[in-house]
């Protein structure tokens, strides 16, 4: 009996973060170690990364960012629940804490995600192969529903649910990293329903 074929997708996140990182990602792609990338459209090197993706025909998705740097959407022009008083996103843990406290306005999440999709199309000239979240923001409660709705509306079929079994029991991970990994996995499991209902795989 023939065995079912399995396709392994290895995605390098944070494409566009900085030129040095991008060089390493392209090198890994050309060597066959990476099969796709996820682009930070608000990254310092987003434009040059987009050019590299086009030059090397790298399958590219959007690495939606709500936690680091500055926004690309309407939030950049004024006060927003997504931003600090200085105009930056709230950070990896700051965003999570704000979501948990109910301090994040989900319509502003939708606005920023849509703005990042538009910026992606401007940079790449086409739609993303997939969309996932920088620091796994896309699986947070409430936020995952916004992502699922917005991705379906924009014709995106693929995301990544970071269910990484066993990380919670890894003794080599320091306690804060282990706790974060467990929280992400818990959120990812809960996000399966919303993403599935909107046809995301």
TrEMBL record:
This is Carbohydrate deacetylase. Its cofactor is Mg(2+). InterPro entries: Glyco_hydro/deAcase_b/a-brl, YdjC-like. SUPFAM superfamilies: Glycoside hydrolase/deacetylase (SSF88713). Belongs to the YdjC deacetylase family. Probably catalyzes the deacetylation of acetylated carbohydrates an important step in the degradation of oligosaccharides. One of its GO terms (molecular function) is deacetylase activity. Transmembrane segments: none annotated. Keywords: Carbohydrate metabolism, Hydrolase, Magnesium, Metal-binding. One of its GO terms (biological process) is carbohydrate metabolic process. The lineage of its organism: Eukaryota, Metazoa, Chordata, Craniata, Vertebrata. It holds the Pfam family YdjC. It comes from the Eukaryota.
């Amino acid at each position: 009996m023939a065995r079912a074929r399995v396709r392994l997708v290895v995605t390098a996140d944070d494409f566009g973060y900085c030129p040095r990182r991008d060089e390493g990602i392209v090198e890994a792609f050309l060597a066959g170690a990476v099969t796709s990338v996820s682009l930070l459209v608000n990254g310092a090197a987003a434009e040059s990364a987009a050019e590299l993706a086009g030059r090397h025909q790298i399958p590219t998705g959007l690495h939606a960012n709500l936690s680091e740097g500055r926004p690309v959407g309407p939030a950049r022009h004024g006060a927003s629940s997504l931003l600090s008083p200085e105009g930056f996103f709230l950070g990896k843990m700051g965003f999570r804490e704000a979501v948990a406290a109910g301090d994040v306005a989900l319509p502003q999440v939708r606005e920023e995600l849509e703005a990042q999709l538009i910026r992606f199309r401007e940079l790449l000239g086409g739609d993303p192969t997939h969309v996932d979240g920088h620091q796994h923001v896309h699986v947070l409660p409430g936020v995952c529903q916004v992502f699922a709705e917005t991705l379906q509306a924009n014709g995106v079929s693929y995301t990544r649910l970071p269910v990484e079994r066993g990380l919670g029991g890894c003794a080599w991970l320091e306690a804060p990293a282990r706790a974060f990994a467990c929280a992400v996995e818990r959120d990812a499991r809960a996000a399966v329903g919303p993403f599935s209902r909107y046809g995301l795989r």
